[in-house]
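Dear colleagues,

For the upcoming journal club I promised to circulate an example of a predicted protein-ligand complex. I picked one with glutamine because it came up in last month's discussion. The inputs are reproduced below in full, followed by the predicted structure.
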Amino acid sequence: MTYNKATVLLREAGIENAEIDAAILFEHFGGIASHSLPFMKNEEVDSPELEDAIKRRIAREPLQYIIGEWYFYGLRFTLNADCLCPRPDTELTVETAIKNLPPRAHFCDIGTGSGAIAVSVLHSRPDTTAEAFDINENALSAAAENAKLNGVSDRIKFEIADALAEDFLDGRKYDAVISNPPYIPASVVPTLDPEVLLEPHRALDGGEDGLDFYRAITKKAKSVLLDGGFILYEVGIGQAHDVAAIGAEHGFTAEIFPDLGGIDRAVLLRKAYNSKGI
Ligand code: GLN
C-alpha cells in the first residue's frame, strides 16, 4: 500500500481529512514518521497491520478505536469501543473544573467512559480526589488503565452504576458533580456520522429531547453537594439555556461557558443560598 493510494481510498470512502488520517495510520502502523511522508508518497509500505487498519478506516471505524489510544488535554488515553472517543469540545469542561474546584475537592464524574474528564482534572489538580461512574464495565476498565497511565490511580475510585437508577448517589457527598452525559436527542442519533454510530449508543442517546440525564443528575445532585458545591455539565449545541432552566427548577444559579468556536458548551450550576446563607 502506498500513502497516495491510501489517501485516495479513504477519500472515496467519504472521509474528509483523508490525508491526515492516512498519515496517522502510516505513522502508527507503518512506522513512517509524518515528516518523511512527503518524500515517500508512492513508496510501497508492506505491512498487514497497516492494510487492516486502512480497511477498518474505510469502513468508517473511528481512527481513535483503530489506533486504540488518543490524546486529550495533553494526556494519552487508551480506548476501546465501549468508550466514547474523547473530543476536544470536552476540554472546556476540564478547564472549567480545574479553575473552579475548591482546594482538596472531592468530585464525581458521571458517565466517565475512558475517564478523560476525571483523569485530566486529577492530573492538573493533585490536591483533589474523585469517584467515577459508568454503566459499562469495559469502559471502566479503560478508565482505570488511563488513571494508572497518567499517575492518578491512587486518587480515584471507579464504580459501575446507572445514573438513571432511583438510588444513584444515595448517601454520597461531593464538592462537585461533573458530567458529560449522553445528550443527543434519540431521534437524531441515527442521523449521526458513520463513525459516531460505531461509538456506544448509550453514551450518546439522551432520551427524547436529549435532556434526560441533566434532569436526573440535577435532581440527585441537590442532596449530595456539600456547601458551596457545584454541578458542571458539558452540553450539546443549543442546550445550555435548557440545562440552566433545569438547574433553576432545583434552586441552582447557572454560569454558561462558550467554547473556542463560540458554542455554549459547559454549564456550571451553583447551589443558591438564601439571604441567611442557608
Ligand atoms: N459530543 C458528542 C457528539 O456530538 C456527543 C457526546 C454526548 O452525548 N455527551 O457526537
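Two points we might discuss: The first strand starts at residue 69 and ends at 72. The chain has a mean pLDDT of 95.

See you all on Thursday,
B. R.
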